[in-house]
Amino acid sequence: MNVKxxxxxxxxxVLIVSKMQGQTCCSGxxxxxxxxxxxxxxxxxxYFQLGYDYNFLDNLYSGTKKLDDNSRExxxxxxxxxxxxxxxxxxxxxxxxxxxxxxxxxxxxxxxTNITQASGLGDVxxxxxxxxxxGLKRSLTIAxxxxxxxxxxxxxxxxxxxxxxxxxxxxxxxxDGIVGAAFQEYHLFHVPGLTFNASAAFRKTRPAxxxxxxxxxxxxxxxxxxxxxxxxFLIHKIAINPSLFLNFRNTQQDKIDDLQVAGxxxxxLNLNPAVSLAPNNILDINISGEIPIYQNLNGTQLTTSYRxxxxxxxxxxxxxx
Amino acid sequence: MKKTIVxxxxxxxxxxxxxxxxxxxxxxxTLPPGNSITNTDGTVVFNDVLENKKIVLAGNANDLFxxxxxxxxxxxxxEFKITEDELPIIMEDTEGNKxxxxxxxxxxxxxxxxxxxxQSLMGYWFSFAxxxxxxxxxxxxxxxxxxxxxxxxxxxxxxxxxxxxxxxPGKDGIPAISSPKFVDVKDASFMDKTNLVxxxxxxxxxxxxxxxxxxxxxxxxxxxxxxxxxxxxxxLTGTATAWDRNVDGKxxxxxxxxxxxxxxxxxxxxxxxxxxxxxxDKAIFGKMKGTKPVKYMVLETKWETWExxxxxxxxxxxxxxxxxxxxxxxxxxxxxxxxxxxxxxxxDTRLHAKExxxxxxxxxxxxxxxxxxxxxx
Lengths: 321, 377
Known about the structure:
The complex is a heterodimer of chains A (321) and B (377).
Chain A: H1 3-17, E1 45-63, E2 65-67, E3 72-86, E4 91-107, E5 113-121, E6 124-134, E7 138-148, E8 156-157, E9 162-163, E10 176-185, E11 194-204, E12 208-209, E13 216-218, E14 222-231, E15 233-235, E16 238-251, E17 255-256, E18 259-260, E19 266-278, E20 283-318
Antiparallel strand pairs in A: 1-2, 1-3, 1-20, 3-4, 4-5, 4-6, 6-7, 7-10, 8-9, 10-11, 11-14, 12-13, 13-17, 14-16, 15-16, 16-19, 17-18, 19-20
Chain B: H1 7-16, E1 37-38, E2 44-50, E3 53-60, E4 65-70, E5 72-73, E6 76-77, E7 80-81, E8 89-93, E9 98-100, E10 105-107, E11 120-124, H2 125-131, E12 136-137, E13 164-166, E14 182-184, E15 196-201, E16 206-210, H3 211-217, E17 219-224, E18 227-234, E19 239-244, E20 246-247, E21 250-251, E22 254-261, E23 264-269, E24 275-277, E25 282-285, E26 295-296, E27 298-302, H4 303-309, E28 314-316, E29 356-362, E30 365-369
């Protein structure tokens, strides 16, 4: 994998990281589907990506309409560690680990502010990746694997000691399946350094037991597409890679047993600008943001107002080089 | 509406406190009573006995209301019959008194007095069945498979703590309304004929609160005349109550705690922070634990009926101080299907889970009355 390829990879990671949880009321858990970072990498290489995501939600939407309301806020902060190891040019494994802090703030009608927080390890995603083709012009990698329910799913509220709702839990409690793919087209329009990226992911959810009763909560299935372009520049020996992506996300409504949960699921369309700086072949520093441009949400939900993600990627080992 | 006298309010306040359950009249319980009578409007009036408490019920399946009162007033057992008068008068008695839908005597020697409302609620069948195991469905004497089950509290709660759930939105995440605005009935173009409303009366004036606002806010802190009350509505159990806002000696407000017990709202009072159970009718956690609220009668019916009952009254409008889609029910198909969002302790399937029924509770025992008992025969 050349340097450009690595930067593309990193940018893709960063950009997709920025597609985290977009709804609050009853859609929680670690936002892993948007952070898969599927890509093929050089054989015998090992990459680590450490990211921090700050997602602030105080826009209240009913369907496509923004409601004039400032009574609720949600802040989700996530530390994400991604590790990819490639056994060959074709085959690699991708692990994604997270630590999540959820903070919900409610301004009561009488001027009291109620804050509820929960933090802990999120679920873990393990993907087997296979690169179907990778060349000078384009590459395509597919991936599949489980989301393991090791995340904290029994966080309690400090006032009553009662188990918090699923959307405030760092983990989801469910063993889900994920498939995805990532595509790159290099030298778009014969312009050196101009790359088209596209990725897709689907998470098939399964129910998780809640409380002590025979009662199961199931987050909605999730589908994501991202597409965009990036351009590479070299200034004073520092590679600079600005990019712009369009992200589409759809989640079905959550379910409690067979009943759909109000205020969950919907469609989001976001614009994600990003830039990365790579002073050398080892290190990459990146920052991205999210600009919501359209949402059509089921019921009434809080959704992202703004979002910032910073990350650092390090190539620790590469036999090939 | 015929004018009622202020004395009725005092009687009502004295008699509606849930703490006073004394009744010197002991009668043998019989089911079914078989004394159902119907007037020309289709309003059905009949007597019943629950836990030795003699009660009268009046309802109309077309107009969609059921109300119930104790038949003993000031030590006298009253005999009720149908009336040819129009709503809001629903019945008359053998003394010659005529009684309106809120239980006020509007004509006759007892004019201004008020029948004591039963401890009763309208709501979904499943909710009464889970809170009151052994509940009867009028006119059957069958008590269901959960007869004898008891609710035993744990961890300083009067209910099993592990059955109290976090509903999701959090404390005050569903904002109670503190400054409701009202419009005249004739100006309530936002209401459809079949929309349900909850009404409150102090004997001299009435107010209505639409379900489609209560679905989004659950609590309205309000008042009428000299009464300060919180109208509390749980959209998951479909139950409405009006509780006095004097808690621990202070006029306060109630808020939505975000907790549910048996999928029913657990309000909290802002004077002591105690948590209350709407359907258990008492505080279940905190300083006020075990205290029963002072309640006021509420009337639930459809908008078309309310317009007929009280055309000169006012209804809370959508100017709540919050921006919500009040034209849309927030819980999808919940009010029609059999599913529950949160589990309940005792799921009794004798009726459709969401059938709206009128439940009367006496000494912890309950009986529900279906609209089919209030149709013209």
